[in-house]
TrEMBL record:
Protein's UniProt name: UvrABC system protein A
Predominant location: cytoplasm
Source species of the chain: Flavobacterium johnsoniae
Lineage summary: Bacteria, Pseudomonadati, Bacteroidota, Flavobacteriia, Flavobacteriales
Cited PANTHER family: UVRABC SYSTEM PROTEIN A
GO biological process: nucleotide-excision repair
Gene3D superfamilies: ABC transporter ATPase domain-like (1.10.8.280), ABC transporter ATPase like domain (1.20.1580.10), ATP-grasp fold, A domain (3.30.1490.20), P-loop containing nucleotide triphosphate hydrolases (3.40.50.300)
Length: 943
């Protein structure tokens, strides 16, 4: 029996599909919540426990502060006791900003900036020499030491290699009481009206003092005053000219190159920040990439003429100023806008794309008259570039972006920083070189760093280095050794982002917190699973409670306590069906327990499919960490691409193979990573990529609108006799446009009541009672059901209801086949999990008529799926392959890998240690491979 004082008590939880459940969850333990997809795990963990924890936190603020935070709705639960402060580590919380990187999320980059600002050596970007900086006292001592007995001029540099006549400057210098200047290496007297050649570059220094250096107090006092004056006018830099040898030496309070005199500002942490104007590369504003016009996107088909839409941004001929200008350019260069673009002279195309001004005369032979023409054309490329740079509206920016490519910034070469920042080094490396290293290499570099630092640097840097090492070790422990700190956070998968946040939380060493994680093992190879479990145990051992929503077998078996929610999904779930230690869970009779104790399992096929004998061959892929990989993909089979996290699977498939296929079949414009050649494209006729991005970001989007079955349902309602009598069109049955929807709630079914100091309250719309449509629309019925009743049906109910309407039946049947029979047709997309969203996309693709020759790419389709759901999904996938299609799956889940016909294993490690083809062939052949980590785990599954 659980100790009441050390538990979180949840009483009467009814959020989403939870059936008024009461549960006690032990604190300071690792608790796993499992169960079928859609059974209510996230509803309990996130929408009840986390939501209440967050609400209580916000309630501690003053009423004034709360009005800016937006309200938090109280979850539908009677009571929660024993709740600690809650931190949720979800999959979808990374920033999509291009400025966010792994280094900035983990805060390691902040420590690196501090290390470089305080402990780095500066080098000159002109000569590569080490920069020097002196105090005024040191400069005085050096001058006395090196120039004793010599005649010197003390100079203050004011102009360095710039054009101009500088008459005003000379006037100003004279007013300040100086008599001489040194211009371009020659000392001259200042005269009235003095000026220089304005078109040549000049160097100008003020002669502050001319003196012989002697070691006596008066001379030293004069020297100190002159140094001070020269520093004031020369902006912390002065020059000493030896009158006998005519040699010049520079001295500076800032960092300065001893030979050329260029100086850097003293470094501050923001000099190394690409998010600060002080450190960002001025050309790309610290993004590392710039957008450049791609002429192929402007002229996708050179065989078309300008008139028939050959210039994509302009479209087909319209009677507008821009087409009149193009006709005028045609007059000048002798072409017509009906000629194919490829026949237009090159000079004319240059003017069309890049603009120009011109006046010319054309004489007409028939009429014997001449006409004057004037061209003042901005150029299509320039226009698009200006719209992208200067337009205030997002839609115009997006339009311009369609004709551009993102390329690394030519000035900073993708490093994001100013030139000066890259010439500060610690142990021969600048900050960008460190950020580009794999975390495993970076950890090794830091472990070896202390032996390369001077005593002064050690004193400054020891604390900073210790912090950096700790944080790097946490990242290593959650299996992210292959990432680099410069990796953009928007390119991370959900699982990677979640593990980075986990590493940051372990680094913060908080105690007494309740952590809730959502499937942290996503995208993680079995090999790294142990490290992840160990990290979670570490969090628990320092005195935190950890709740994990998870389907992973290892995680369930190592938990202290397991809660199984079921028995089925959707409205057939939401009950606690088993609770206790893993050993007690195994004895229960739930579906989860049967998969864990081996009573139920995914059967290995008796024989593997042989495919259709045709191949798709990709040769010489070298993107990111791939080391000249060549693969042969047998068509007509289920192919699994495996390998540890970061080994190069996504680079090979999502960034190289998919863009090639997409460009070939659908004229996709995404540029693939470098490769040598591809063969066999003629053997397939289309490619479909199904990822896990949400299907809609607003509550108005739902499975029915996404799979387009709602369009067919609306058409069906317009065909009813009552609807035809009233003259209703399909728009009448849409809740997004005026006409048929309830205007009180604008078709959303609920009204938001804004309470100034309290959370917003959502109440059912009193006009339509949550039905979304007005009375007249709801009077139209099909088989006794109104359009609103149809949206409230579960997919399981809709299948028999629409049995006689093939177009609708086919679509709802495929949603049922992928195991989503429990969701309603009108369920808000925002409430669907990543795995559910992916299966709806899969259903959307499956319901289209397949050609039996399609190439499907699925990226980790088992995310968020229970063992039983994986079985349902694999049945659907197998049906597709049996029709002759090819399905390529990137996957870590052994249940899927063992069912594949052909495996391609990339590895052996992640990051730099990966990117090679380790094994290929049937699961049985791959399992014999000694080098592959996947083989080790696969062997156990096949036994």
């Amino acid at each position: 029996m659980l100790d009441k004082d050390n538990t979180i008590e949840v009483l009467g939880a009814r959020v989403h599909n939870l059936k008024n459940i009461d549960i006690s969850i032990p604190r300071e333990k690792l608790v796993v919540i499992t169960g079928l997809s859609g059974s209510g795990k996230s509803s309990l963990a996130f929408d009840t426990i986390y939501a209440e924890g967050q609400r209580r936190y916000v309630e501690t603020f003053s009423a004034y502060a709360r009005q800016f935070l937006g309200g938090l709705e109280r979850p539908d639960v009677d009571k929660i006791d024993g709740l600690s402060p809650v931190i949720a580590i979800e999959q979808k919380t990374t920033s999509k900003s291009p400025r966010s990187t792994v280094g900035t999320i983990t805060e390691i980059y902040d420590f690196l900036r501090l290390l470089y600002a305080r402990g780095a050596d500066a080098y000159s970007y002109n000569t590569g020499e080490k920069m020097v900086s002196y105090s005024d006292e040191q400069i005085k001592d050096l001058i006395i030491q090196d120039y004793n007995g010599k005649r010197i001029n003390i100079l203050a540099p004011v102009i360095k290699a710039r054009k101009g006549h500088y008459a005003e400057l000379f006037q100003q210098i004279t007013k300040q009481g100086f008599l001489k200047v040194r211009v371009n290496g020659e000392v001259q007297d200042l005269t009235a009206g003095m000026k220089l050649d304005r078109y040549k570059t000049h160097d100008i220094e003020i002669v502050v003092d001319r003196m012989v250096i002697e070691d006596n107090p008066d001379n030293q006092k004069r020297l100190a005053e002159s140094i001070n004056t020269a520093m004031h006018h020369g902006e912390n830099v002065l020059m000493i000219l030896d009158q006998d040898s005519n040699e010049v030496r520079y001295f500076s309070r800032n960092l300065m190159c001893p030979s050329t005199g260029i100086s850097y500002q003293n470094p501050e942490p923001n000099l190394f920040s690409f998010n600060s104007p002080k450190g960002a590369c001025p050309h790309c504003n610290g993004l590392g990439t710039v957008h450049e016009i791609n002429v192929k996107k402007i002229i996708p088909n050179p065989k078309l003429s300008i008139k028939s839409g050959g210039l994509a941004p302009l479209g087909e001929y319209k009677s507008s100023w821009i087409f009149k200008q193009l006709e005028t350019i045609g007059e000048k260069f002798g072409f017509k806008i009906t000629d194919p673009i490829e026949k237009i002279p090159e000079e004319a195309m240059t003017m069309i794309l890049h603009g120009g001004k011109d006046k010319f005369t054309v004489s007409s032979k028939d009429l014997g008259v001449t006409r004057d023409y004037k061209i003042d054309f901005e150029g299509i490329s320039n226009f698009i570039k200006n719209q992208y740079d200067e337009s205030a509206t997002t839609s115009i920016k997006r339009w311009a972006k369609d004709f551009m490519d993102e390329i690394p910034c030519p000035v900073c070469e993708g490093s994001r920083l100013k030139k000066e920042a890259l010439f500060f080094r610690v142990n021969e490396k600048n900050i960008t070189e460190l950020c580009d290293m794999d975390i495993s290499d970076l950890t090794a570099w830091f472990h070896d760093l202390n032996s390369h630092l001077t005593d002064k640097q050690l004193l400054i840097a020891s604390e900073i280095v210790k912090e950096i090492k700790d944080r790097l070790n946490f990242l290593m422990n959650v299996g992210l050794n292959y990432l680099a700190l410069s990796r953009s956070s928007k390119s991370l998968s959900g699982g990677e982002a979640q593990r980075i946040r986990l590493a940051t939380q372990i680094g913060s060493q908080l105690v007494g917190v309740l952590y809730i994680l959502d499937e942290p093992s996503i995208g993680l190879h079995q090999r790294d699973n142990e490290k992840l479990i160990h990290s979670l145990e570490q969090l628990r051992d320092i005195g935190n409670s950890v709740i994990v929503v998870e389907h992973d077998k290892d995680m369930i078996e190592t938990a202290d306590y397991v809660i199984d929610i079921g028995p089925k999904a959707g409205k057939y779930g939401g009950e606690i069906i088993s609770i206790g230690t893993p050993a007690e869970t195994l004895k229960s009779d739930t579906i989860t327990a049967q998969y864990l104790n081996g009573k139920m399992k995914l059967e290995i096929p008796k024989e593997r499919r042989k495919g259709n004998g045709k191949f798709l061959k990709l040769t010489g892929a070298t993107g990111n960490n791939l080391k000249n990989v060549s693969i042969e993909i047998p068509l007509g089979q289920l192919i699994c691409v495996t390998g540890v996290s970061g080994s190069g699977k996504s680079t090979l498939i999502n960034e190289t193979l998919y863009p090639i296929l997409n460009a070939y079949y659908f004229n996709g414009v995404k540029k693939p990573q470098p490769y040598k050649k591809i063969e066999g494209l003629e053997h397939i006729d289309k490619v479909i990529d199904i990822d896990q991005s949400p299907i809609g970001r607003t509550p108005r989007s739902n499975p029915a609108t996404y799979t387009e079955v709602f369009t067919e349902i609306r058409n069906l309602f317009t065909m009813t006799s009552e609807s035809m009598i009233r003259g209703y069109k399909a728009g009448r049955f849409s809740f997004n446009v005026k006409g048929g929807r309830c205007e009180t709630c604008e078709g959303s079914g609920v009204r938001t009541i804004e309470m100034n100091f309290l959370p917003d309250v959502y109440v059912e719309c009193e006009t339509c009672q949550g039905k979304r449509f007005n009375r007249e629309t709801l009077e139209i019925r099909y088989k006794g059901k109104s359009i609103s009743d149809v949206l409230d049906m579960t997919v399981d109910e809709a299948v028999p209801f629409f049995e006689n309407i093939p177009k609708i039946y086919r679509k709802v049947k495929t949603i049922q086949d992928v195991g989503l029979g429990y969701i309603t047709l009108g369920q808000q997309s925002t409430t669907l999990s990543g795995g559910e969203a992916q299966r709806i996309k899969l259903a959307g693709e499956l319901s289209k008529k397949d050609t039996g020759n399609t190439f499907y790419i699925l990226d980790e389709p088992t995310t968020g799926l229970h063992f039983e759901d994986i079985r349902v999904l694999m049945d659907v996938i197998n049906k597709l392959v049996d029709k002759g299609n090819t399905i390529l799956v990137i996957e870590h889940n052994m249940d899927v890998i063992k069912l594949a016909d052909y495996i391609i294993d990339i590895g052996p490690e992640g990051g730099k240690g990966g990117g090679q083809l380790i094994a290929k062939g049937t699961p049985e052949e791959v399992a014999k491979n000694k080098k592959s980590y996947t083989a080790k785990f696969l062997k156990k599954e096949l036994e």
